[in-house]
Amino acid sequence: LNDLKEVEKFAESVKAELQSWEQLDASSIPSLDILINNAGVFDPEPRFSAQGYDSTMAINVLAPFVLTRKLLPCLVRGNEARIITTSSISQSRLLPDVDKLFAKKVGKKDFDVEPLPYSGHSFYSHSKLGDLLFTKQLANVLSNNQIDHNTSADNPQKLLENMRRIQCLTMDPGTVNTKMLLAGWGPCGIPVSKANNTYKLATGEEYAWGNVDSGSYHFGWGESRDANNKPKLIEFWSKLSSCTGHDYDDLSDCF
């Protein structure tokens, strides 16, 4: 996940596996009901991705942005599809300067812009706010998408309806004694075997489309006020697109 090229390859391998399960040929798009973006890191010391971005931001935010985009055609064909992305009660209250947050390392000590001062805890918090903002704007993008009339899909209107009904959710997973929690905060949580917030969002009928808002945050206390700041959402989304080389402007491949 620290290399976006590998994320792209992983998405292709997932598609191939789904095609195999559904006995489809290589030109057919398989279906996917649930995508859970849960993998994450806490780095006490600064590290950088293959593309030169801070590893925490790359793994926790840029990778889900790319993986979700690559698998979106499959999710559009899913059965009441859901996209769950893990945020945290540790999310930052305010979005920092996004250019500095995603400062790109271009030499041994050089960056394209002056980066934010590094702290493992602050960058983790920024990344969890990033996951919340990603979920909010993803819901906006999918629910407002328009169909490309040049599509060759058999039933494009049905696929468009499916896209608009993809349930995008985010949450605090609970304070769970994962390796990451132990590294950053110590053994202050519940056993991993008792953590079920992700399962609830992925399977619970009470979290299905129409029962709660797509783009909503669950289980933790109040979300960042920037989560409903439209200019901030658009600015952050644009930065994710420019950093990854992927966008959600043209979704014609989903149809």
Short description:
With 255 residues, this protein is an alpha/beta fold. The chain contains 8 helices and 4 strands.
Order of helices and strands: HEHEHHHEHHEH
| Helix content percent band | 40-55%
Low-pLDDT segments: none
Distance between the termini: 27 Å
Please work out how many helical segments DSSP would assign: 8
Let me know the largest β-sheet. Answer: 4 strands, parallel
Using only C-alpha atoms, the radius of gyration works out to 18 Å
Shape: globular
| Mean pLDDT score | 91
Layout of helices and strands, plus pairs?
Layout: H1 4-22, E1 34-37, H2 55-76, E2 82-86, H3 98-101, H4 120-143, H5 156-164, E3 167-171, H6 179-184, H7 197-203, E4 216-218, H8 230-244
Parallel strand pairs: 1-2, 2-3, 3-4
Helix pairs in contact: 1-2, 2-4, 2-8, 4-8
Structural description of this entry:
The chain has 255 residues and is an alpha/beta fold. The chain is 42% helix and 7% strand. The chain has eight helices and four strands. It has helices spanning 4-22, 55-76, 98-101, 120-143, 156-164, 179-184, 197-203, 230-244; strands spanning 34-37, 82-86, 167-171, 216-218. The chain has a four-stranded parallel sheet with strand order 1-2-3-4, with helices on both faces. Helix 1 (4-22) runs parallel beside helix 2 (55-76), helix 2 (55-76) crosses helix 8 and helix 4 (120-143) crosses helix 8. The protein is globular. The relative contact order is 0.17. The mean pLDDT is 91.
